[in-house]
Amino acid sequence: MRGFRWFVWVMVCAACAGGVMLAQAPATGGVSSVPVSSYTIVHTYPHDRDAFTQGLQFLDGVLYEGTGLNGRSSLRKVDLQTGRVLQKIDLPQQYFGEGITVFGPKVFQLTWQSGVAFVYDKTTFKQLTSFQYRGEGWGLTSDGTSLFMSDGTEFLRVLDPATFAEKRRVRVMAAGSPLKNLNELEWVKGEVWANVWQTQYIARINPQTGIVIGYVDLRGLLSAREMESVDVLNGIAYDATGDRLFVTGKLWPKLFEIRLVTK
Fold it and tell me: What is the number of other CB atoms lying within 10 angstroms of the CB of residue 92?
């Protein structure tokens, strides 16, 4: 949800009325009750500040990035060092692009409220097929066997990549309370990492139990002045080969390689 600044205050008020505080902390009491890591910046890379980042993955030496907003949604292959777009396909204007994941030779891309997931050839970006689903599409990742999808609720859907059929749901709980607004997802060393929308925290989730086993506090990546002209933190990419972690945000001018630091 999805970055229209003129309408964010409505969403914040609605969420607060439902008992979820969309402030800097992901959930009331959650951060104080769950281990929290900080970070150190290893390297800073350029990022297209027109890219409304909804999905991010590092594979085979390049970044795969899905962007959102109607009329501006795309799937991209991006050079890490320069931020240059190497390959791109635009979505039709009626679709608001959301999370992506590479699964074998294919790339899956969600849409926000259209209930459609597109499947592309990883090499050519040719659309191979599409799937229908109920509800909203937010984030997407994979453990190599199944797809994990977030939809703005506290649930992760576990999907069959061959049919997009739902196999089960995992309820995400932090310090005994449901954690909603799970946004972009990434598979990191056997955990599902999720940007918590409208916060500067990442939740580290046990994919079997749904328990939040830790948070990553990413406040301060951009200066206060830089934050005035960008949207929310969103975008996690893990380089399993090089054991590197990358993060960025919607319309951010920078992408950061970070290393976790225990608080």
Answer: 9
- Single-letter residue type at 234: N
Query: Cβ distance 19 to 178 under 8 Å?
Result: no
Six token digits for residue 133: 């689903």
Strands 212-217 and 36-46, bridge-based pairing: parallel
The dihedrals phi and psi of 91, each to the nearest 5 degrees, come to -85, 150
**What is the 8-class DSSP label of residue 33?**
H
CATH number for the domain spanning 192: value is: 2.40.128.630
Number of domains composing the chain? 1
Residue 130 has a CB neighbour count (10 Å cut-off) of 14
Range of the domain at 13: 5-262
Q: Looking at residue 4, what DSSP letter applies?
A: -
Per-residue pLDDT tens listing for the chain (263 residues): 455 443 343 333 333 333 333 335 565 344 558 999 999 999 999 999 999 999 999 999 999 999 999 999 999 999 999 999 999 999 999 999 999 999 999 999 999 999 999 999 999 999 999 999 999 999 999 999 999 999 999 999 999 999 999 999 999 999 999 999 999 999 999 999 999 999 999 999 999 999 999 999 999 999 888 888 899 999 999 999 999 999 999 999 999 999 999 87
* pTM for the model: 0.89
